[in-house]
Amino acid sequence: MMNSNLSIETITADIWTKYRVSIMHLQAQSYEAGRQDSAEYFESLIKSERHVSLIALDNRQTAGYTFAAALEVFDKTGGVCDDINLGKQNTLYSADVTVSKLYRNQGLGYALKSQQIEQARKYGYLYLSGRNRVGLAQAMWNMNLKFGAKEVCRIANAYTDGPMPREAIYYRINLHPN
Fold first, then answer.
1. Three-state secondary structure string covering 146-168
2. What is Dmax (Cα atoms) for the chain?
3. Comparing C-alpha atoms, which of 16, 129, 126, 18 is closest to residue 68?
């Protein structure tokens, strides 16, 4: 169960400036090198139209975050370049959902993903896509399955860093199932 002191807010330019260092620190603690992104990359996402970037705060401390933007922003990312929805402006791509070790297994990742999906629907997206590293992101894949994720394809050698496996699952969630 989530802590009652936790709040989830949209990452605006002001919030990014205030929490940038803690977000980058949490990323470095949570991901192997092949899955880390630069601060400039995250900043570009929050500047894009219809982005869904969120931060979970516990008494002004970063507990988790998520970054997502239109699929077209990620057109060079493995899986995206072959997505049938690329160019249709109907898909949100979830680039990152991260929860601090202190807050894992308490429902925070689920809450972040739920709010990401809710905002994606408000922006008129029909789908949410993303990818999860096989084996090393099993908890995230399991959570995405709870939201109705379907595997679209497997991407061999999606990550070039040392840890194995290097394969990723590219998935899609229908935001308006019948």
1. HCCCEEEEEECCCCCCCCCCCCE
2. 42
3. 129
> Does residue 10 have a pLDDT over 90?
yes
pLDDT in tens, 13-34: 999 999 999 999 999 998 777 6
Output the pLDDT for position 169: 86
Q: Phi first, then psi: give them for residue 61, nearest 5 degrees.
A: -105, 140
Instruction: Give me the phi and psi of 170, to 5 degrees please.
Output: -95, 125
How would residue 164 be classed by pLDDT, with cut points 50, 70 and 90? Answer: low
Could you count the other beta carbons within 10 Å of the beta carbon of residue 29?
10
β-sheet with 150-155: strand ranges across: 6-10, 54-58, 61-70, 91-99, 127-133, 168-174, 150-155
d(CA 37, CA 27): 8
* Single pTM value for the model: 0.91
What is the SS3 assignment for 48-92? CCCCCCEEEEECCEEEEEEEEEEHHHHCCCCCHHHCCCCCCCCEE
